[in-house]
Recover the amino acids of this structure.
């Protein structure tokens, strides 16, 4: 009983995000003219999974107490690389996919190396490297265009057994192949330790540098997966600076809605996935309610703020004000 | 394990020196430890003890000198290197990770693995095992460290150190947050480990702990190793003299006779806060030092925070100098109409901005006093700070030095100076001498008495019974958030304090003792 | 304060040194680089970034960040031009104060969310940015606004009234002097640094830290809006997303000037150096007709490289 309570308390954030998503999604489906059809679910999943992947990527640096403001630019850069390389024969396509993933991993590693060995602050480091990655994206694709292997694109953006959206399967695979092993490794635990209290982690003999490096590298890799998927969804590449920024910022929002503390040490990618789904569904919700399009940006922003404020309501219950300062 | 050979030094340091900027922390120090002995290291703050153990633990690296472990020359680039060699440390600043579970923390390095991944079940069994060894069965292994009270965290820390199979164990003020019962458990464990042949280095400011535990004592002063001797070779007075380097006089200033017609400064009536404080009524007169006693965590800290306006939802009435005071915020408590000050529990996170200068720290709470119109009168501020530095004999290179570069005792004096600047008339102190050297402690005792004699009122919470007896005119004892007894005059004895702290009736307690 | 000054002198010196090196290198490329015309032109452009960076610095010092700057800049520009359209003559007079007040209003909401609800500023100001954007989309109906900048805004942003020095530079100077006085000579400034170092200890010293934070965010909003008014004056009208290009350079300028991105230390002189540095870098790259892709890469590399030279960061462990 005590154990169950503790486990619930320790997973409060992701559970709330999950609940919120189920609620909003139910309202969305309830008001959608077509209801829950395979097509509706697939469209929703394709958009949601993109942000979910970027949100997952962002979660890792945040867990270490850092942040990656370049994640959206890595995503955009990988989209551009994919639009140039992922086509042709199966072998060429496979090489292209590998190249995209490696590029993302390399960007993440560079971020991590500058932060760990250069001892620079993550915010400013990734702000600057973001410019670099965007420059590379622009060099590869000065104007939108390119193409992608159609067979693969069709396979990934449709359904498995004509029911489950393939992107959801892909997301689950990423969780199982990347996140769960990482979470259960000493490296992953080192990320939580570093984010929770870096001095204590150092004193306890945790290899903080290796953990941080791994977090940023995996962040780059996950952003690359998302960039790849974006290419399959849009069938083209575009070096869009606003696009990258929006994904960076939304990824932070998804992380926070998913119950991960921006101070580090608390949370996980599962929360970020549902956080991303919540954000995406809010956007779609405005669409099905037929709001005047001009009102949509405002209402979307207001709902985001309201959700954050509701999450902050616990502040009003705090009776020892010192707890406010963490 | 082979039988310990007391003749063969387990750990040897020779000619160790360490400088931080222009300050010499350790000056050509030799230090030796043997297996099967508990070695107490004594000295004021700033004497070099903490630098010594930081070097032993691999947290900092010496500028010069050699270290030998069982005769082999060693260097530690990071704490993890020391741990691998069996040199395990428990620091005052806890090294537990707050957002991980107790089990995670206890296996933070080299966790049990299956197929390369952390084996949670094995990790949990290991945690249960280690917790049982330190008699901490009430801590659930899956609980987050963040949710444990300070005393439990310290026990978990000790359990973690045992789990690293140490050959040498270094404890820095390891019992400072522990309850009396826990301290006994720790003594027992340490004695057992000594029997198993460990070398143990023990740092404490509590003289009776050293008497109870140590085999050898080393005294440090000003970064130098002054003397090492066997326990019992010197009296307490002689040891203290070695530590402070001057003749040792009264520990506590004399208490003046009670005022016949007291003027109350603080009157608290039926103050309650949730289930942590219940119907607290107490009075502190001008010129009086009133102590708050009791076991750790009986609501003492909450009482001080409630008076200072930090807690919300407090019921009851509080009067300061006859005027009803609303306890809404520290800002309000500080205002001239109330005139309260709080020396907080943790000077590093609650009292000071370590990177900021001594001057900025001292003037922070009273800076509005030096403000004319919108602007700060900086020369007036500078003069006032200099006065305060002299008055409290704060030893700092200059008032521009960052507070973080000062020794612990001087840091605490800066916190006190900050509040004296506000000309507070009611001063609340939360364990102000914790982790502070003997010399500074005495200065603080003298200062408190001088402040009281000048007509201020002092409310002092301390975990040190000697201070309750020596410093306070009256002591209220808290148990489970209530005042269970008030002690003053001849009734203010260690025995009465202990029985009240356990909330035993006086008679029953007397019978319980042979 | 002098101790603080000494400790960050180094980055400020390096930043100024780098500035001189860049000017010298530029003058090899073209003699125009040392001409008064070119330098004044750069100062004019730098002033816009300088005012935004001032706002960024006020919230970075107490350990926060204001990501709502882009659309608060737009609010400033659009509200100033709209005021003239709505209220005619009176509107033209109140255009600037009205726009700045709008910026302050957004800032106060940011402050309330951060100080009272304790929502991390990074995410709350992001949300406010979205709300501000939504409001402006609604205001313009999604089209480019037709309101023109008032003559006063034009005068402020493009004219050179004194000694061929752009008026924008005087506005920046005024804003900067106000901030320096506030930071160095008032209790408010002391509290700002103290909160950046440790808010808990500041609160326990009897400081109303929430009020201080709200003032910081309000001031940041005011600076952004002011910059927006001037930008609208500069290009004669306000337009969508006019502030997008300023957020990251402003933060980069503050950090290049030696301010700790986590708060607690930094001087305004450094921010000035950072602003000039970034402006000059952007200008040199554009003079060299470097394609956008290369500019972005060089821009990023220079920021990282300079911070590496400072040899700082990660000092505040614990």
């Amino acid at each position: 009983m005590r154990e169950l309570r503790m486990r619930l308390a320790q997973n409060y954030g992701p559970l709330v995000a999950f609940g919120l998503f189920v609620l909003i999604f139910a309202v969305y489906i309830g008001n959608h003219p077509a209801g829950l059809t395979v097509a509706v679910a697939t469209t929703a999943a394709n958009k949601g999974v993109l942000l979910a992947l970027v949100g997952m990527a962002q979660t890792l640096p945040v867990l270490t107490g850092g942040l990656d403001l370049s994640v959206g630019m890595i995503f955009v850069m990988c989209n551009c690389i994919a639009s140039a390389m992922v086509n042709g024969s199966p072998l060429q396509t496979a090489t292209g996919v590998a190249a995209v993933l490696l590029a993302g991993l390399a960007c993440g590693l560079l971020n991590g190396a500058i932060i760990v060995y250069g001892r620079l602050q993550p915010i400013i480091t990734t702000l600057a490297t973001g410019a670099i990655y965007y420059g590379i994206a622009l060099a590869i694709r000065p104007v939108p265009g390119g193409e992608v292997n159609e067979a693969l694109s069709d396979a990934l953006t449709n359904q498995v057994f004509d029911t489950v959206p393939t992107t959801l399967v892909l997301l689950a695979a990423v969780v199982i192949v990347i996140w769960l092993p990482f979470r259960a490794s000493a490296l992953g635990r080192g990320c939580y330790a570093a984010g929770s209290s870096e001095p204590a982690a150092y004193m306890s003999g945790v290899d903080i540098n290796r953990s941080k490096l791994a977090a940023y590298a995996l962040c780059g890799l996950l952003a690359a997966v998302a960039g790849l998927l974006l290419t399959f969804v849009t069938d083209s590449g575009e070096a869009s600076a606003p696009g990258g920024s929006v994904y960076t910022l939304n990824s932070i929002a998804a992380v926070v809605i998913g119950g991960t503390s921006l101070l580090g040490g608390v949370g996980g990618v599962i929360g970020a996935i549902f956080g991303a789904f919540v954000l995406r569904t809010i956007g779609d919700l405005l669409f099905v309610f037929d709001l005047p399009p001009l009102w949509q940006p405002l209402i979307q922003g207001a709902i985001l703020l309201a959700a954050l404020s509701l999450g902050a309501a616990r502040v009003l219950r705090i009776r020892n004000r010192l707890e406010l300062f963490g | 394990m082979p039988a310990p050979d007391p003749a063969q030094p387990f750990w040897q340091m020779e000619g160790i020196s360490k400088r931080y900027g222009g300050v010499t922390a350790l000056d050509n120090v030799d230090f030796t430890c043997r297996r099967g002995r508990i070695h107490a290291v004594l000295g004021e703050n700033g004497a070099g003890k903490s630098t010594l153990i930081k070097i032993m633990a691999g947290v900092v690296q010496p500028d010069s000198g050699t270290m030998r472990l069982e005769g082999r020359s060693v260097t530690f680039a990071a704490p993890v290197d020391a741990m691998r060699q069996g040199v395990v440390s428990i620091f005052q600043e806890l090294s537990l990770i707050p957002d991980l579970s107790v089990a995670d923390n206890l296996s933070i390095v080299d966790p049990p693995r299956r197929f390369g991944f952390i084996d949670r079940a094995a990790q949990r069994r290991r945690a249960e095992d280690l917790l049982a060894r330190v008699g901490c069965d009430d801590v659930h292994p899956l609980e987050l460290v963040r949710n444990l009270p300070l005393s439990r965290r310290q026990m978990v820390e000790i359990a973690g150190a045992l789990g690293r199979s140490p050959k040498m164990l270094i404890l820095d003020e390891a019992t400072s947050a522990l309850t009396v019962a826990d301290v006994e458990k720790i003594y027992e464990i340490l004695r057992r480990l000594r029997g198993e042949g460990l070398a143990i280095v023990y740092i404490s400011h509590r003289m009776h702990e050293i008497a109870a535990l140590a085999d050898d004592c080393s005294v440090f002063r000003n970064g130098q190793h002054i003397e090492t001797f066997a326990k019992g070779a010197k009296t307490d007075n002689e040891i203290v003299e070695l530590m402070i380097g001057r003749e040792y006089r009264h520990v506590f200033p004399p208490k003046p006779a009670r005022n016949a017609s007291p003027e109350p400064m603080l009157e608290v009536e039926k103050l309650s806060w949730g289930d942590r404080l219940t119907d607290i009524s107490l009075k502190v007169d001008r010129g009086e030092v009133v102590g708050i006693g009791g076991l750790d965590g009986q609501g003492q800290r909450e009482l001080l925070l409630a008076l200072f306006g930090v807690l919300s939802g407090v019921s009851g009435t509080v009067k300061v100098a006859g005027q009803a005071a609303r306890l809404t915020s520290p800002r309000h408590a500080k205002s001239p109409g109330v005139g309260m000050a709080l020396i907080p529990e943790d000077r590093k996170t609650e009292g000071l901005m370590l990177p900021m200068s001594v001057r900025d720290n001292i003037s922070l709470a009273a800076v509005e006093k030096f403000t004319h119109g919108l602007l700060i009168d900086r020369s007036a501020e500078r003069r006032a700070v200099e006065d305060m530095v002299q008055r409290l004999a704060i030893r700092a290179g200059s008032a521009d030095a960052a507070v973080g570069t000062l020794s612990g005792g001087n840091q605490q004096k800066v916190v006190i100076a900050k509040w004296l600047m506000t000309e507070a008339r009611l001063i609340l102190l939360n364990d102000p001498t914790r982790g502070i050297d003997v010399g500074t402690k005495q200065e603080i005792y003298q200062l408190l008495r001088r402040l009281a004699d000048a007509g201020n009122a002092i409310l002092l919470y301390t975990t040190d019974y000697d201070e309750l007896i020596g410093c306070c005119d009256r002591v209220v004892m808290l148990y489970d958030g209530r005042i269970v007894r008030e002690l003053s005059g001849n009734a203010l004895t260690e025995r009465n304090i202990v029985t009240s702290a356990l909330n035993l009736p006086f008679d029953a307690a007397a019978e319980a003792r042979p | 304060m002098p101790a603080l000054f000494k400790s960050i002198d180094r980055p400020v010196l390096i930043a100024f040194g780098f500035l001189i090196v860049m000017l010298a290198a530029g003058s090899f490329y073209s003699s125009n680089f040392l001409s008064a015309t070119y330098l004044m032109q750069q100062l004019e452009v730098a002033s816009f970034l300088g005012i935004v960076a001032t706002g960024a610095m006020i919230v970075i010092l107490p350990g926060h960040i204001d990501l709502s700057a882009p659309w608060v800049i737009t609010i400033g520009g659009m509200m100033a031009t709209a005021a003239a359209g709505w209220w005619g003559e009176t509107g033209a007079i109140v255009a600037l104060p009205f726009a700045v007040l709008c910026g302050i209003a957004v800032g106060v909401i940011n402050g309330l969310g951060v100080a009272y609800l304790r929502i991390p500023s990074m995410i709350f100001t992001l949300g406010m940015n979205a709300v501000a954007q939504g409001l402006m989309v609604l205001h313009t109906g999604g089209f480019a606004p037709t309101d023109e900048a008032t003559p006063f805004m034009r005068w402020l942003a493009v004219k050179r009234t004194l000694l061929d020095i752009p008026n924008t530079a005087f506005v920046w100077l005024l804003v900067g002097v106000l901030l320096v006085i506030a930071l160095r000579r008032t209790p408010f400034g002391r509290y700002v640094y103290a909160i950046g170092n440790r808010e808990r200890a500041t609160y326990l010293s009897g400081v109303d830290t929430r009020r201080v934070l709200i003032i910081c965010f309000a001031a940041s909003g005011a600076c952004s809006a002011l910059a927006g008014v001037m930008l609208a004056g500069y290009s004669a009208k306000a337009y969508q997303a006019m502030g997008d290009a300023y957020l990251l350079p402003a933060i980069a300028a503050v950090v290049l000037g030696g301010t700790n991105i986590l708060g607690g230390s930094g001087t305004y002189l450094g921010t000035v150096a950072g602003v000039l540095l970034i402006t000059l870098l952007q200008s040199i790259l554009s003079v060299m007709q470097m394609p956008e892709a290369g500019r972005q890469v060089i821009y990023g590399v220079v920021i990282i490289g300079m911070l590496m030279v400072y040899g700082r960061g990660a000092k505040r462990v614990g």
In short: The first strand of chain B starts at residue 9 and ends at 20. Chain B is about 35% helix and 25% strand.
